[in-house]
Design a protein that fits this description.
By secondary structure, the protein is mostly beta strands. The protein is 0% helix and 51% strand. The protein has strands spanning 11-19, 35-42, 48-55, 62-69, 73-78, 94-112, 119-124, 126-127. 22% of the residues are buried.
């Protein structure tokens, strides 16, 4: 079977419950800049329109931030790099809700380079629908 003929995999709604961009970094920038990212796979045959909303403890949500992921492609998006409608704040706890018009797969990764001994965490997001 041709990989490009595979049916779409994943879900259309994903949740990341543990967002936090560490304040401060050690090492060269941009490679070792502390960050959160979402890694998105669109294995289907149509481009995916993905809206990301950011939820906070003590204020209204930010977003949506809209990404387009081409068909049969992977996309790695650093949350630090999202600017419009506003930057995602550094040093603040948050949660993410991702909604796509086609099934996708989402993974969440954090690089914490505040200390010389860096920490990298990665986990699959929660597929809600």
């Amino acid at each position: 079977m041709d990989l490009l003929d595979l049916p779409p995999v994943g879900a259309t709604t994903w949740v990341v419950a543990d967002g936090y961009i560490p304040p401060g970094s050690t090492g060269p920038v941009p490679e070792m800049l502390s960050h959160d990212s979402v890694c998105i796979l669109n294995a289907g045959g149509r481009a995916a329109k993905v809206d990301i909303s950011v939820f906070f403890t003590d204020r209204d949500p930010a977003g949506p931030y809209t990404l387009e992921i081409a068909a049969h492609r992977a996309h790695h998006q650093r949350l630090n790099d999202l600017q419009g409608p506003e930057p995602v704040p550094v040093g603040v706890d948050y949660c993410l809700l991702l909604r796509s018009d086609v099934p996708i797969v989402v993974q969440h990764t954090r690089l914490d380079s505040r200390q010389a001994a860096n920490a990298l965490m990665s986990t699959i997001a929660y597929p809600a629908a």
